[in-house]
C-alpha cells in the first residue's frame, strides 16, 4: 500500500499526556498505557472514530474513562484498534503483552544480548502499545520501568529520573519524566546490566548537565572518545547555532544489535556500539571520526529534530538533511575542512548519485512511499545536506544563522514541514527561494554542461551553462534548478583574476558564486586580458555532474595552482578518471594497456612536496574507486574497470617506488615514536603512510613485506594494524597472510567490533575465490545473521566493495545475495531491504548480467511472504 504526501490530514485526536508502565520479564513483557486525549480542535466538528496504530500486540485490557471495554466496543485488526469516543476529552487505558525476547526485527522493544532496548523511529512505537504513532502527535511522557533487579540494575527512559524503589521478588522500578512534548518516535527505554562513564557540561547560561555514556562492562575502556566528542558538540552548537541543551541529564547507551547508526531519543540516545566505542587499540582513525560525527549528529538532533520535529515522514530530510549538514560542518571545523569535503563529496558521488540514477530515486522530499524505513536514504541524508549547504552558500553565514534562529524560535515545540524551514530562511534573509525549492521536489542528479568563449578584442570571457536533469521514476520532465556555482579564473601563471561581470562597475573579488537559474545561461566577465582557465564548482558548491572540456594538461595545472583545495583534488580525480577510462577502452579493445605518464608525473610532484597536507596527498593518490567508475559509466564493464585500475596501481607503484618508500618510512618512524592521537594531523600522517604501503606491496619486494609484517605485529593502534592486515590479505603472500589472520582473530575474538573488521577485510579481497571465502566465513563462530553489524561487515562488504567477485559472470554472487535477502526478510526486514541495493542497480550492466540480476530479484519476489520493506524495493526495481 502506497502512502501519499498529498493525502496528509491533521490528526483527529491529540494525546496531551502519555503514562507508560513496563513490566519486563524473560518470556514476555507487559505494557500499560494511560493516554490523556482530546479531540483535535483543528480537525473539524463531531467525534470521529478513534483509530490507533498497533502491531503484534496482545490486547489484555482496555478502558475508556474507567469504563472497561468489551469486544463489542472496539474493532481490532493486525494493524489498528478502533473505538468510538463519546466526549471531547477522555482517558484511554490499555494493557498489552509483547515479546521483546523474540523480536529479531530490532524495531520496537527488543533485546540486544541481555539488555532491553528500543528503536521507535519511524514506526516502531506501534509495536510497543496502541498509539497515534505519527510525528505530529506530540505528548508529555512519564515512564515507569520494572524489572528483575539483579539482571537489570539500570533502568532508563527519557527525561529526568523522578522516583524509584524495589518490589518484592527481587524486582525494582524507576520512573522517568520528560518535561518536553515529543512524538512517540523519540521514546526510548533501556534496561540492563550496564556501566557508565560520567562527566558534565556547563551550558552557556551556566546550567550544569550530567553526561552519562552507558555500555556493557567490558567496554568501559572505550568510551572516552565519545564523551570528548559529545562535549565538543555541545560547545559547537552553542557557538555556531546558539543552541543550548535543555534537560539536566544527557545519556547515550551503546547496544550491539542495532539496524542503523544511532537514534536521537530525547535525552536518551541509543547507539549502535560501532558508533560509540573507540580506542586506539581497537578502532581505526575512520572509526574514531565516525564516532565523533555520529555523537555530534544525534546530539544536534536535540534541536533539529526534537525541539522542532517533522509533521509527517515525507519531511524526514527537514531534520536529517539539516542535521547531516550541521554534523559535517562540525567535523570540518574540528579537523580539516578540505579533507572532510573531499570525503563527503566522494561518498555522495559514488553512492547517492547511483541511488538517484536507479529505480528507488526519489526527491529530498518524497511524495509517496510504501515503507518509510526504505526512505532513510542517501538522498534524504546526504543530498538533503547538500541542499542545506546550497542555502548556506546562497544566503551567506550571517543570514543563514538569522534564518536558523528564526526557524527554531518560530517553530519550537512544533511538528513542521520543509516549506516552514525554507520560509524561515526567506523571511530572515529577504531572499526568494521559490525556484530553489525544486531541489526538494525533483529527483535525479542535474547535469551542468559548461562551455567558454574568449573575445580577445573585447577582453571578455563568457561561460555558458546548460543544465538538464534525467528522468526519474514518476518524473519525466524537470524544470531548471537554482545551481550556485562557486568559481574563479586563473591566468597562465596561476594567479586568480578579479571577477567583474558585464554591467558591474567594479570587480567583486576573485572567488564568487554565480546563481545559474535557467536551462541555458551565459555570464560574461570583462577586463580579461588573456584567455583564463576556469576553476568551476569550487568546494562542490552544488550536487551536480559538471562537464567542462578540460584537457589533461589543464587538469594538471589546476592540481597545482587552484586556490581551492577541493578543486585541486577534483582536478586530480578528473585526470585519473580520464586516464582510467582510456585504459578501460584499451582493455575492451584487447590492446596492451599503456598508462599516461602525466598521471605519474603529477603524483610524483605531490609525493615529493613535503610542504603539502599529507591527507590531501593521500586523497590524491587514491584513484577513483571501482564503484565510482561504475557510476559514471553508461554500461559498466566490471572486468575492464577492475583490470584498468589494478594496472594503473601497479604501474604507479613501480614508477613511484622511491618516493612512496621514503614517505612510508618517514611516517612509520613517526608512528613508532608517537602515541596515538585522534586528531587531523595524525589522521593525515597515517593515511599517507597506509596508502603508500598499499602501493608498495604491489612491488612484492621482501623489504616491503617485512615492513608490512612489522607494522601488523607491532603497531600500537588499529589504524596501522588493520591497514597492514588488509594489504597482506590482498597480497600473494599466502603464508604471512594466514598467520596474520589467525593471530588477529585469536587476539580479538572477544571483541565483536574488531571481528567485524576482520570479516570486512576478507570480504573485500578482490583476489579470485571471493564468494567461497565469504561462504566459509559465514560458518565462523563469530558470525551471525542476527547481528546487523556482522551482516554489513561480511555480506554487505562483499556485495558493495568487492565488485569483481560479487559481479562474477557466473551470477553466483547474485544468487548468494538473494539467498541472504530471503532469509533476512523473515528475520529483519530493514536489513534485508538494505542489503538488496546492489541487485537493484542492474541497469548499469551488460545484457548477461542484467538477466542474472533480474532473475534473482524475481526469485526474491516469488519466495513467499515479503515484508513491505523488501517488497517495495524489489517491485520498484523490476518495474
Ligand atoms: N534518526 C536516526 C538518525 O539520526 C535514524 C534512525 C532511523 N532508524 C530506522 N530504523 N529507520 O539518523
Ligand atoms: Zn539523523
UniProtKB/TrEMBL annotation:
Keywords: Aminopeptidase, Hydrolase, Metal-binding, Metalloprotease, Protease, Zinc
GO molecular function: aminopeptidase activity
Keyword Nucleotidyltransferase: no
Annotated Pfam families: DUF3458 (PF11940), DUF3458_C (PF17432), Peptidase_M1 (PF01433), Peptidase_M1_N (PF17900)
UniProt xrefs under InterPro entries: Aminopeptidase_N-like_N, Aminopeptidase_N-like_N_sf, PepN_Ig-like_sf, Peptidase_M1, Peptidase_M1_dom, Peptidase_M1_pepN, Peptidase_M1_pepN_C, Peptidase_M1_pepN_C_sf
Residue span, Peptidase M1 alanyl aminopeptidase Ig-like fold domain: 444-548
Ranges for domain Peptidase M1 membrane alanine aminopeptidase: 226-439
EC number, as in UniProt: 3.4.11.2
Cofactor needs: Zn(2+)
Keyword Lipid metabolism: no
Domain Aminopeptidase N-like N-terminal per the UniProt entry, residue ranges: 103-186
Ranges for domain Peptidase M1 alanyl aminopeptidase C-terminal: 553-879
Catalytic activity: Release of an N-terminal amino acid, Xaa-|-Yaa- from a peptide, amide or arylamide. Xaa is preferably Ala, but may be most amino acids including Pro (slow action). When a terminal hydrophobic residue is followed by a prolyl residue, the two may be released as an intact Xaa-Pro dipeptide
Entry similarity comment: Belongs to the peptidase M1 family.
Descriptive protein name: Aminopeptidase N
Source species of the chain: Ectopseudomonas composti
